Amino acid sequence: MINTIKSSTIVEHGQQKAKPARVFLKKFLNDWSLNFASMLAYHLLISLLPMAVALFGILGLVLRNNPDAQQEIKDKIISSFSIENTTNNGIKQVVDLAFNQLSKEAGIIFAIGLIFALFGSSRLFVTIDKCMTIIYRVPQRTFIHENVLAFAAVFVFIIIIPLMLAFSSAPSILMSIILGNGSRFGTFVAGIIFSLLFAFILLELIYLYIPNRTMSFKATWCGALIAASTLEIFIILFPLYVRAFMGNYTGQLGFIVILLLFFYYFAIIIILGAQINAFFFDNYQPLLDGLGTYLSEMHTEYGVDHPKRPLCEENTETRSYSNELDLPESSNNMIDLIHGDLYKFVFMPISNQINNYIQCRLIRNKSVLSQTFHLEVECSDDGESICLLTAEKQFKISGQSQYTISVISKYPKNYISAELTSDDLTGTRYVLNLLNGYKRQQLAVILYEANFLGINGPRKIEVLLSKVNDQMLYFIEESDLNEYDLKEESNCFFRLYNKPPHWNSLESCYTLNFIGKNRAAIPSIKNFQMVIKNDENVEQIVMQFGRMLENEFSCDFQYPLSLIQAFAIALTALESRWFRE
Asked: What is the reported pTM?
């Protein structure tokens, strides 16, 4: 049975290195990004008409008695579309028709256009908000909050866009005045630079304020810059694309088709920038399947007996879990538990009614450019084990440590990932985050006391563990566990600390008394035992980690630790840092 579970198919599937580009593409497609881009392009198109009517109304009021200025503006609009002459004729007809109505009904057009422009533009920002809801896995805003934000965004952009256009045109005008006709290349370069800056600011504002969560410039600038650069390249190449592949689209209909296609690609670029920020900077991972399949499986997961019933219906009884994992009496039952509910086995703490340890082995594989680690759960007394967790240390130019932890599973739907990162170069603080799900949650914070070159004696470790409720959700959400570091007690986390080793004069080193046979054969500075005070204020060993061979370590734990928390603590102990040794 155990040999079947340890088959190469399972292990190879879990040990595959998921390339970031491939995982990012999976998130982009599973979030229905192309479908949402179509929806966004449609709202861009329908919001364009009322905004254009309002703009023409303003021009009609200002330029009513200035036909020369009207003709110049018409020529500018037509010449901005560098496409076939037949399509240009269609654009000219549309523009002439619009300007002919201005002199007759400018005031009425302006009033009607302004009302529809505000409403249509607000629907555009509502659509962007819904796209960000899927990308960032955040709750949807209420109807009132959503529409207030949308109208506020419209007014802000109405003020900002004309100012940006004026500032972006100023350098080109100044260069043409100063340098004369010989400044065409400089004017072109200046136009590209300021157009890029203009696009970056607009996209940054969207990425910073539209998502229904607190965003920072640090986590949004890269996506905005990539999207702005891509947009500039697209604007330059799109006329060439139209000439080559859309020459048969003529007249007013051709103009609408080309405009819709332009908006579709533009919407893809907006969503692409948001996806880059969410994946590479906020570490939001892809859904296990496409959005439709994922929602269907959620109905099954939460025990909804009919697919047409809502997940949040008052009478719907969702599946409940115990917030502790009962340890099976035999190895066969443990194997059944692992494959029956892998998520629960990996993330839930062991029951506090069980006195014995879950015994594991940590295997380290070192190479010149990378390090990988595997955690095997021992299922029998003869040493047979199942490899359940794997971690890969990522190379960081900054020198900070980052580990991607994955669950080894035969079935893709059981794939779960977490991330262990150090906050600085000293290696004195690590944070374990669960990456899957709608909310990123902190599972643990591991703290090492500053101890340069070990002048203060052996390592001192402190661990804060988030507690789990009966729905298998951690009480502490992202970034909140930091607030509890200096508190003595809390109902939201457990506080663990390492047991001080004693000096062994015979071996001239610090040692620990490990529980169990052959659990730590080699003395090492990396060996440790984590303790917690029980209700009677007595120290109880809840985890022990010790070197067995050069690249093989024992890793045993019990309540209140879970498998992934014990693995993360062990990974931090394997690092060598001058500031904490």
From this structure: 0.55
